[in-house]
Automatic annotation (TrEMBL):
One Pfam match: FMN_red
InterPro entries the record matches: Flavoprotein-like_sf, FMN_Rdtase-like_dom, NAD(P)H-dep_reductase
Domain named NADPH-dependent FMN reductase-like: residues: 4-146
Organism of this sequence: Kaistella jeonii
UniProt superkingdom: Bacteria
Protein name (record): ACP phosphodiesterase
Gene Ontology MF terms in the entry: FMN binding; oxidoreductase activity
GO cellular component labels: cytosol
Length: 181
């Protein structure tokens, strides 16, 4: 069965490693998964004062999430936790409480870093934040993608064979997870 997956990238950087890995996850996913990066860079800061008449960007973002069957977070670690821009997008999608766009969407997390630890702190904090959003999160396999500079080939787009295998297996497991809901 075909499933739509909203991919949220937690970095706004043009040459983001996370975006590159997200694109590889899209390329290597089972063919029945239709993955699409949902952009967060134009959302602005969440503010309760304006949620009753939200900006168009918020409404569009919420609709993209609502119209997806699942969500995939691909994020760097900032100061051992998740980037503010990602948390901000989580807030915007979650409000108002009766219109939590994330509710019940099966999810998965990959953290990507040049460091060997692979964004473990951010990975677990995203998991933590997702509890309140009511996202049933795949637990295993976990994806702490460390040493990312050594994983990319000379084209700076494609990952090496070992990483390709890892990502392929991760996406197969995620597809199975999604089908359970
Ligand atoms: C970082 N970086 C970083 N890396 C890490 O593994 N753990 C960390 O706690 C941090 N902290 C941190 C804070 C801030 C403010 C910045 C800007 C960076 C390094 C980070 O992993 C690196 O810049 C990545 O390349 C960011 O991901 P993208 O933008 O390449 O996807």
């Amino acid at each position: 069965e075909n499933k739509k997956v909203a991919v949220i990238v937690g970095s706004l950087r043009k040459e983001s490693f996370n975006r590159k890995i997200a694109n590889e996850m899209i390329r290597l996913a089972p063919k029945n998964l239709q993955l699409k990066i949902v952009e967060i860079k134009d959302l602005g800061f969440f503010n309760e004062d304006i949620e009753k008449s939200p900006p168009q960007e918020w409404t569009d973002f919420k609709n993209e999430i609502k119209n997806s069957d699942a969500v995939l977070f691909v994020s760097p670690e900032y100061n051992r936790t998740l980037p503010g821009v990602l948390k901000n997008a989580m807030e915007i999608g979650s409000r108002p409480p009766k219109e939590n766009s994330w509710k019940g969407k099966p999810g998965a997390i990959a953290t990507v870093s040049p460091s060997a630890i692979g964004g473990l702190g951010a990975n677990h904090n995203i998991r933590d934040a997702a509890m309140s959003l009511d996202i049933p999160m795949m637990q295993q396999p976990a994806a702490y993608i460390g040493g990312v500079k050594d994983r990319l080939l000379e084209d700076a787009i494609t990952v090496n064979e070992a990483t390709e295998k890892f990502i392929t297996d991760f996406m197969i497991a995620f597809e199975k997870w999604i089908q359970r809901f």
